[in-house]
Every structure is written in C-alpha cells, then in structure tokens.
C-alpha cells in the first residue's frame, strides 16, 4: 500500500492505493498552518501501513532538502521540512516533488502522455513540469514555467499581478489576473499570453504533447483557442505539439503523487 498527498496551496488531498483502479481518496483538507493541516493528514493515514508516500507540493520546493522554500507566499510554511516531518510521523520514506511535476508523472505513468511532454496548469497561479528522457525535469530548483517573461500584447496596459515580476505569464494570465481584469472591465488577453507561453515552451523543449489543465482550463473552448493562437504565432516555423486536457482529470495531482512512489 502506497500513500499519496497532493499538497496544494488551498487544500491537501490524501489517498492510498497502487494506481487508478485501486485508489481510496480522502476528503479535501484545508491548507492552514502546517500543524493543523498535517494533523488531519496523519489522521487519514492512521489505519494504513504505508510502504512509501509520494508528495506533490505547492512551491517553490527545495527538493534537495525536502522543504518548502523561504520564498513561498504562504508565510506559515516558509522553510517547512515537509519530507522529514512526514517520514518521521508516518514511519515510511517520502518522495517529494512539485505539484505540477507530480501531475506530469501521473499523466505519463497512468495516462498516455508521451516522452517528452510538458504539463501546464492554469489556476490561481500557473505552473509547469514535464518528463524528458524518462525523467521528471529537475535542476537547480525545478521548472518555473509560469514565470516566463513574454512579449506584451499590443494595447495591453495591465501591470500584472506577480509579486516578483509583475507581468510574467502568471502575472498576466493566471485565474487571479483574469479576475482582476474582469473587475476593471479591461480586455482579457489571457489567450494571447498562454499561447505565447506554450509556444516558448514548445521551442525550448520540443515536446510531443502539452497537457493543459487547471481550473481556468475548464472554460469551454479555451484550450482550443490557446492552441489555435499558438499555431498562428508560430507562422509555420516548427512542428508543434498537440495540446490536450489531463487524461486523469481532477485526479492527476493525487495520482501523480502516488506514481512518485508506486511507479518508478
Ligand atoms: Zn512571475
């Protein structure tokens, strides 16, 4: 039996099992303080003996040290040693990665996502991960695909919402940015920036597929509009990847976390 934790910025989802056909998912747990949230997480796992637990976490994450970085906007979690705490309290080894890398791994292991491919989520924020040569993308930190600095759309005066960069991809096209523009009655350029982001990532990685998920992507036809605009921007220059929805749907995060330990 393996454990899985999708550790999101607003909620944690825990599960036990071995794969999509053998999975028990717990009720969502609100992300508050580490002490409160982890008490509920441990209560969920209490009846089970785990061989290992996979964790897909909000970030940024210091993967080498197994902790949330000190730059996370979630103040209570700054520097929190998530991997070590879980290992000590669950008595099982933990594998920690970003939420988006975990989701990418799930789509690759339990879905049909090819190699290489990228996974991008557009929700409150924007994040991305991917599989290249059979491995998740890791490096100095982990990919920060949501923070690409892209060409500004003609006529766009929105300053952007990223606390670090202002008008990076996340600052201009996240769910929060779209909502802020809507409030002031401004034109929504999200398709333009998302298409630019996907094109930049396609040129950088030459993926066979980009899986585009997250709450914002539940907007009807949005994925198709982004893919179409990406093709226009490409001007026929390079062959481009298919842009698809997550095959595992809303379970890609928690199944991805499970795949970090059950499918290696
Ligand atoms: Zn940014």
Topology:
Blueprint: E1 2-7, E2 11-19, E3 22-25, E4 29-30, H1 34-45, E5 52-57, E6 61-62, E7 67-68, H2 82-90, E8 94-98, H3 99-109, E9 117-122, E10 126-132, E11 135-136, H4 169-173, H5 175-183, H6 190-205, E12 209-213, H7 222-234, E13 242-244, H8 252-262
Parallel strand pairs: 1-5, 5-8, 9-12, 12-13
Antiparallel strand pairs: 1-2, 2-3, 2-4, 6-7, 9-10, 10-11
Helix pairs in contact: 3-8, 6-7
The structure holds zinc ion.
CATH superfamily of the largest domain: ATPase, nucleotide binding domain
Helix content: 25-40%
Low-confidence stretches: none
Rounded to the nearest angstrom, the radius of gyration is 18 Å
CATH topology of the largest domain: Nucleotidyltransferase, domain 5
Distance between the termini: 15 Å
Count of extended strands: 13
Helix-strand makeup class: alpha/beta
The tally of helices reads 8
**Mean of residue pLDDT?**
96
Fraction in beta strands: 15-25%
From the coordinates shown, what is the CATH architecture of the largest domain? 2-Layer Sandwich
Order of helices and strands: EEEEHEEEHEHEEEHHHEHEH
CATH class of the largest domain: Alpha Beta
Q: Which ligands are bound?
A: zinc ion
Task: Give the biggest beta sheet.
Answer: 6 strands, mixed
Q: Which overall shape is indicated by the principal axes computed on the Cα atoms? A: globular
Question: How many domains is the backbone divided into?
Answer: 2
């Amino acid at each position: 039996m393996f454990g899985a934790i999708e550790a999101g910025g607003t909620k944690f989802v825990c599960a036990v099992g071995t794969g999509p056909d053998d999975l028990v998912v717990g009720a969502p747990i609100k992300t508050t303080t580490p002490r409160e949230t982890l008490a509920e997480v441990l209560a969920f796992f209490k009846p089970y003996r785990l061989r290992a637990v996979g964790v897909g976490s909000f970030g940024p994450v210091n993967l080498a040290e197994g902790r949330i970085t000190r730059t996370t906007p979630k103040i209570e979690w700054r520097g929190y040693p998530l991997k070590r705490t879980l290992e000590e309290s669950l008595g099982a080894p933990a594998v920690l990665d970003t939420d988006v890398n975990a989701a990418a791994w799930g789509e690759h292991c339990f879905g049909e996502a090819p190699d290489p491919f990228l996974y991008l989520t557009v929700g409150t924020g924007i994040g991305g991960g991917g599989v290249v040569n059979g491995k998740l993308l890791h490096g100095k930190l982990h990919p920060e695909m949501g923070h690409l600095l892209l060409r500004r759309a003609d006529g766009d005066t929105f300053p952007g919402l990223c606390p670090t960069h202002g008008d990076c991809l996340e600052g201009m096209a996240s769910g929060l940015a779209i909502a802020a523009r809507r409030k002031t009655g401004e034109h929504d350029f999200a398709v333009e920036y998302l298409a630019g982001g996907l094109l930049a990532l396609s040129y950088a990685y030459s993926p066979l597929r980009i899986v585009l998920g997250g709450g914002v992507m539940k907007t009807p036809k949005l994925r198709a509009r982004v893919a179409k605009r990406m093709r226009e921007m490409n001007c026929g220059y390079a062959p481009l990847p298919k842009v698809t929805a997550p095959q595992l749907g809303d379970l890609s995060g928690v199944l991805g976390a499970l795949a970090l330990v059950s499918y290696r």
